Amino acid sequence: MLRVDPAQRARLIEIIRSLTERIAEAKLNGWLGEEEGLRVSLEAARNKLTAMDRTRSQSTTRIADLGIPQIRKG
């Protein structure tokens, strides 16, 4: 899964809102196939938002122990 740029969080929320509205429209018009496809897209968008929030809440800087360098003679 590709990582979404955290600066695009507001855009992702707008996409989720739009998909929700389009699902309601599809349901109203009886477009069952369209409704199901939109639900799949909505679930994927929600999962990306959750992953983005989870990544954001974790520390972005980590210390890696690389050990003590050894100088080789010769």
Pick out its properties:
74 residues, 2 helices, 0% strand
Would you give an account of this structure?
With 74 residues, this protein is mostly helical. It has a domain at 6-56. The chain is 64% helix and 0% strand. The chain has 2 helices and no strands. It starts with 8 loop residues before the first helix and ends in a 17-residue tail after the last helix.
Strand segment count: 0
**Fraction in beta strands:** under 5%
Measured between the Cα atoms of the first and last residue, the distance is 47 Å
Helix content: 55-70%
Helix/strand-derived category reads mainly alpha
Low-confidence spans: none
Q: How large, in whole angstroms, is the Cα Rg?
A: 22 Å
Short description:
The chain is an all-alpha fold and 74 residues long.
Secondary structure: elements and pairs:
Blueprint: H1 9-29, H2 32-57
Helix pairs in contact: 1-2
